[in-house]
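Dear colleague,

As promised, here are the two records you asked about, laid out in our usual form so they can be pasted straight into your sheet.

NAME FIELD: protein one
SEQUENCE, THEN STRUCTURE:
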Amino acid sequence: MSASKNSKKHDNMANAIRFLSADAIDKANSGHPGMPLGMADVAAVLFAKFIKLSPENPKWFDRDRFILSAGHGSTLLYSVLYLMGYKDISIEDVKNFRQLNAKTAGHPEYGYLQGIDMTTGPLGQGITSAVGMAIAERHVNSKYGDSLCEHYTYVIAGDGCLMEGISEEAISLAGHLKLNKMIVFWDDNNITIDGKVCSSCSTDQIARFKANNWNTISIDGQSESEITAAIEKAQKSDKPTLIACRTTIGFGAPNKQGTSKAHGSPLGAEETAALRKSLGWSYPAFEIPRDILKDWREAGKKSDKEYKKWAEAAKKQGKEFLDFIENKLSKNWNKDLENLKKNAIKEQTKVATRKASQMCLETIVPNIPQTIGGSADLSASNLTTVKGMEPLTKNNYGGNEIFYGIREHAMAAVMNGLALHGGAIPYGGTFFVFSDYMRPAMRLAALMGIRVVYVLTHDSIGVGEDGPTHQPIEHLASYRAMPNILTFRPCDVVETAEAWQIALETECVPSILALTRQNLPMIRTSAKENLTAKGGYIISDVEKGKKRKATIIATGSEVSLAILAQKKLKEEKIDVAVVSMPCTELFDKQDISYQEEVLGTAPRIAVEAGSKYGWERYVGLSGDIIGMDGFGASGPAEKLFEYFGITVDEIIDSVKNSKK
């Protein structure tokens, strides 16, 4: 075995990772021992010799970032964090692996332990978000220099990460931008759950990465000297680097190593005992000898001088820098946004909400220096670009607009990395229907609770002639079903501005802005209070003293239809109230008394040019829902609304036919 060529100290440190991992998985009777056993040498070299971090100061901004893209090997990371001396993980936490409410979950979860830089598990997400972190590092470096921001982004990825399609978008973008501070360790063990990699994949990964403008190095992943030399070489590269680490999955387990049997099941007592004998580890479960633990704790302190030097430089730089890297908004950041709302009401601005969003961005981008925008090759349609933005390129990392290309999968995950890194508040645009490509990363953003803004335009059958492939139908309902994400569908300039304000001021929740292609009239008459923050509100009430005969609940472009229906009904002495519901998630958080006041006791009709699913909770069993039961069609937008029965006349008929 290659380990015999390594130093005794290294072998002991690597084996400490192996046996903590194997013992934790055995105790849980659940987990993936193969990767931690195979990649322990890489992790031992990286963390003992190279990686810049401080367990005493775990949120040090200029620390190196480490992403375990192969998140199923989570015990490798938990073992390292304990061994290095992070204060929020104990040996009991390692023993409690995969148990309910444990910090040591089945896959690493951001926020559970301070040494976890992001939630990983869905393969390909880690390596792609790492691209975002590497971009953010170069971006902040361009503004503040090496003394305040110069660090690496390290990734351990497996065959699964590289097979997932998102990885192609990730490595293509990273190579294009020449993100040379990004180093990926590929656990090249030739094994997947179903057997050997060659049974399903014949890709030459080295050639693939080279074609995407990466530096590549191939090594024996169990050789201390080769790992060390590879990292030293990678750190000098002017490109991102893939280090292909030829490893043996389940290294040291004599009866399971090199096979899929070592991948996703505990070794078991008998095989773990054989592993101990094979590697000469005579200590009982979860016991780390003092001298080995001492070596690891010393490794945890190797960057202390660098931290102190950085802390002094950061203090000297001052509050502006600290606020920047902590993504704090300036005190009066929204002053121009407030003026925009007032002027829009005064001038009765009639624009598509995608244009309203761009108008908002014209006030936001200059006043929030951390803003980094972009689009998946649709900036002219999403209107995500504003005057004064500069492209972020390999020659200008200080730019604040990323040209993601036609890479929605990557864009969403890269934005996660930007937000997690600090010094960047990302937003990105595409057509709402293509958010399906982004959904796994959006779900992770919601799970992690991070501030990312999705500008998703062409929000309904109002897309028109492009047809049903481009017309989102079920998307609003599906995102409303996702926990911890805000889905806004504003009806005019004021609601769009209010949604942007909420999205930017809400630090622990991602936000969707579903925006129209077609122009919408100005409906709001006052912007003194952010009514969108309530999720739903009466935008047009019955006259004082009149009794509500029905309540029409609408979102986005359909609010103006509801208002027109209200006016025509009034001519027939039928008094109805119109409720705008730009964000159901926020409405659901309001007091019951407020919800009842807004919705009233009269019959309710919901109107939305999307799936009817979910509106039952607001209209009740006796209410009506005017919306979509199937997919859209190709034709002019106004014809489509008529064809699918989302019209003023349909609303009027529904009100007249409603029964209390």
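NAME FIELD: protein two
SEQUENCE, THEN STRUCTURE:
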Amino acid sequence: MTAPHTITGARAALYLRVSTARQAEHNVSIPDQRRQGEDWCAARGLKIVDTYVEPGATATNDRRPVFQQLIEAGTSKPAPFDLVVVHSFSRFFRDHFELEFYVRKLAKNGVKLVSITQEMGDDPMHVMMRQIMALFDEYQSKETAKHVLRAMRENARQGFWNGSLPPIGYRAVAAEQRGAKVKKRLEIDPFHAETVRTIFRLALEGDGGSGSMGVKAIAAWLNERSIRTRDGGRWGLGAVHQILTRTTYTGRHEFNRRGKDRKLKPKSEAVVVEVPPIIDQETFDAVQAHLHARNPKKVPPRVVSGPTLLTGLIHCAKCGGAMTIRTGKGGQYRYYACSTKARQGPTACTGMTVPMEKLDDLVAKNLEDELLRPDRLEVILSTVLDRRQEQTTRKRAHVAELNKRATEAELRLKRLYDAIENGFAEVDDPDLKERIAALKATRDQAKADAERVTASLSAEGRKAVAPDMLANFASAARKRIRNAEGGYRRDHLRALAQRVEVAADEVRILGSKSNLLQALIAGTAETKPGAVPSFVPKWCTRRDSNPWPLPSEGSALSS
């Protein structure tokens, strides 16, 4: 067996790493690794030419910036050092395959990896010992990760927060003390929770001058009004989309939903943590439907902009597939036909074939007779209006809370100024300056949030629904939906109905109450630019809303 050795006067580079704050509290902290490495090199007459420090990085992969700098230097020609000195091989890598890969990569350039606590030679026996130790390091790393994840899952099951940055709109607060550990839970951050509610409102209803807004339009709207992110930055598409799709805001945070590779884990591995809701479930579901309908991978742009009245809305009730246009007699006749049957034959779906003009008339007539009546609109929208009233009440309470917070901050500032004026405090005190700056920020943020919420309340007040609005809306919509020019009629129909299902004995028309209310408030049945109808069935869900087929039109649905 060849004894371990080093070359006196050789050039050495130290590589120091810890992966967690817990390790830094023990004997593998960065300062301790540095001291031991320097002493070891000095005792052997080695010259330290560089030191690479990597705090807070795992050794299970090579995605470490400082590590890559070390490898780049060690493989350059000529190399600036002869040895890479580490406290233990686990500081360099905790994957036996990757360890051997980089050891050999450095060796090809004449650079050797040595450990001050695991000194080894170059003979086959020492190489095998190093590989065995690397296997144990890898096993220990995986076992530790497994136990840590198990503890975090249990912590989440008990309703506690596991320490990552909370979603915007929440903050982590101490809940209880267990020994030396402080358990935390999430609570609503009133400063940023209103921003979250605003984003959902824009996605669903718009800002009063437009229809429902997409992710890009929402980001632009927020940035134009200097509504910043939690860290004071500008909004981007990713941040807005993450808020709109995060179930945490409904009161159900999912822990361990994704792995380190960001891929979804099986649902059985996720732990649901109950948190205070910022958005109700109905609003969240409606926004998901809007996002789904806007997704170009799901709904082609021609579905919204095409000239056919029911394009993108009409579906076969038997198989759920879309119905598409078919022609006959050289284009003289046009039909809606089940696309599943057309593509896969009658064994896949027996499907329906319906004359396009007759079905268009049936749908338009039903909307006129059964939906566009003031009394019917009042019944359908009653629950939505009640919910809006609850939201208004909550917003007013939130404004009062924000104003109270701003007033308290102002009073504290006044007391600090009085203390300075009376000589009880030094104006140059750094702690005092920091306190004054924090109070000013709290006061200004509270005032800004209160003004924004008050403005939204004023806008909602201007959009209040009066009885005469129902009658005017119904009358105007009945006229516009019958416009024979096509496009204008189609846009109006999409604000009233978002899905039409055709069966052999009936036609079911489904729509969204939110879209209907949006059209009503705008004073027209027109879908605003950029708005895409939701596929959330809310109204026309009972047989009495859809008495199809009409006695006089009994043959309209025949093939």
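A couple of things worth noting about protein two: Residues 170-298 form a domain with the Hect, E3 ligase catalytic domain fold fold (CATH 3.90.1750.20). Residues 300-306, 524-537, 541-559 have pLDDT under 50 and may be disordered.

Best,
R.
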